[in-house]
Amino acid sequence: MDQPQQEPPSESSPLVTDNRTAIRNSALQAVLQLSDHSRVYLAIKFLISLGKITACLLILFLTSTDVEKPLDTFIYIMLSIECVYALVTVVNFSIPPAEQHFRLKRTISLFEYLALLTYITGHILGNIWFYSCDSCFDDARELTILSLVLIVLGYIYMCMPCLLCCCICLCLPVLIIALMYANPGQHPATEEQISKLKVASFNSTEHINKECVICFAAFEENDEIMILNCDVRHSFHSVCLKKWLRINNTCPICRKPLE
Ligand SMILES: [Zn+2]
Ligand SMILES: [Zn+2]
After folding, report:
1. pLDDT in tens, 182-213
2. Using one digit for the tens of pLDDT, what is the confidence trace for 124-152?
């Protein structure tokens, strides 16, 4: 089969780099936009803070706080931090961060930073007091249970960035496929077009492209890959490319339509 006459874009050409970046960025933006200070997210955050504040106030003022270790101090620390977070959430809800004045943004950041430092210190102290108190459950059951709940929540918050990273990494290929479906004005390739594509077994010495930009995974020896006619370096996992082409009949890198 004749190769196309046009000069293929080089691997480092702006076109190739832009397309790769665009594919990755569009998926990441979709994830970030979901969590980026949306009003629903802020409302949920405020309700959680309100729940914690209510629980702390009820326990502190309606039950016994007479215990061997100062667990009530731990609750007071958590209560004050939660009040700061609730206040910041209300401000962000009423004035979206994009419209905030520089000075307000800086003040919010300072409060959040101080709250985080206090939270970490309070959490460490809470752990020490909780685990070193032998008679707390007997002396002030409600106070001790609330302390335990706040300590467990603290561990969950600390693990949250790791969990979020894992979720994003695992969901990225799914998101890309979803974005391809969501992109209007595109046409799928026919099965006949797909069947005519060059299929090869990946060989690291023979093939220049070492990574599938659809799933972002590096090719492994003998992986079944498909190479598009637009450029010998535009190769992808067969499975990934077929999924792409059944939605969009263009090359994922240079956007050249399939012949
Ligand atoms: Zn792939
Ligand atoms: Zn291409």
Report:
1. 665 568 888 998 998 999 999 999 998 999 99
2. 999 999 888 888 888 888 888 999 999 99
Domain boundary assignment for the chain: 29-182, 187-259
- Residue 253's nearest CA partner among 53, 21, 44, 38 is 21
Residue that the structure tokens 């969990």 belong to: 163
Distance 198 CA to ligand 2 centre (A): 13
Which pTM does this prediction carry?
0.51
Domain 187-259 top-level CATH class:
alpha beta
Query: Ligand 2 centroid to 7 CA: how many Å?
Result: 12
Residue 173 alpha carbon to ligand 1 centre in Å: 9
Which residue in 151, 12, 138, 7 sits closest to 64, CA to CA? 138
Q: How far is the CA of 180 from the centre of ligand 1 (A)?
A: 15
Closest ligand to residue 172's CA: 1
What is the Å distance from ligand 1's center to 8 Cα? 22
Structure tokens at 189: 């390739």
